[in-house]
Amino acid sequence: MGSPVSPIVADIFMEFLEQSAIASVPVECKPKLWKRYVDDILEIIKKHRVDGLTQHLNSVDDTGSIKFTAEQEQDEQMPFLDTLIVRKSDGRVKLLVYRKKTHTDQYLHFSSHHPQQHKLSAVRILLDRSSQIVTEEEDREQEVHRFDTVWLP
Q1: Helix (H, G, I), strand (E, B) or coil at 33
Q2: CB half-sphere exposure, 115, CA atoms < 13 A
């Protein structure tokens, strides 16, 4: 921790551990999809195989210093990073911007004494997230409407 090379070393180790785990996973527990960003992994696997895969992943690291946990979809939804993956009734998925339950919608007040580029950057980032993450136009409009309530008096 604290060293400039720490993230690189951690990523290399996770890559090694990931390749070892996937190569040796039992066939019945093999995920259909495996996407990792740093230490967050999104996988698609049959529900009744989640515990088996998690146990296998935890057995790969001989040091026991890395423990995998599984979070399953609830109410047809699954958060992953800034994205909320929603399973629709027709089997397709849509993506929304994910906010934790503790999110307060508090950002830089536009009349604050922060540099104007910081305030504009906050707005731009929120708009970029809505346009890059949200997959359906109606949801994108609702996301943009959220900014009206946050930024306008």
Answers
A1: strand
A2: 3
CA-closest candidate to residue 42, choices 7, 11, 99, 82? 82
Whether pTM > 0.85 for this model: the answer is no
- Whole-angstrom Cα Rg for the chain: 20
Helix, strand, coil percentages in the chain from 3-state DSSP, rounded to 5: 45, 15, 40
Q: Identity (one letter) of the amino acid at 71?
A: E
- Cα 90 to Cα 79: distance, rounded to the nearest angstrom: 20
Band of the pLDDT at 64, cuts 50, 70, 90?
A: confident
Beta strands in the chain, from DSSP E residues, in sequence order:
33-37, 40-44, 77-80, 83-87, 93-97
pLDDT interval class at 1 (50, 70, 90): low
Measure the CA–CA gap between 48 and 75, rounded to whole angstroms: 17
Q: What is the pLDDT of residues 33-49, one digit of tens each?
A: 999 998 899 999 999 99
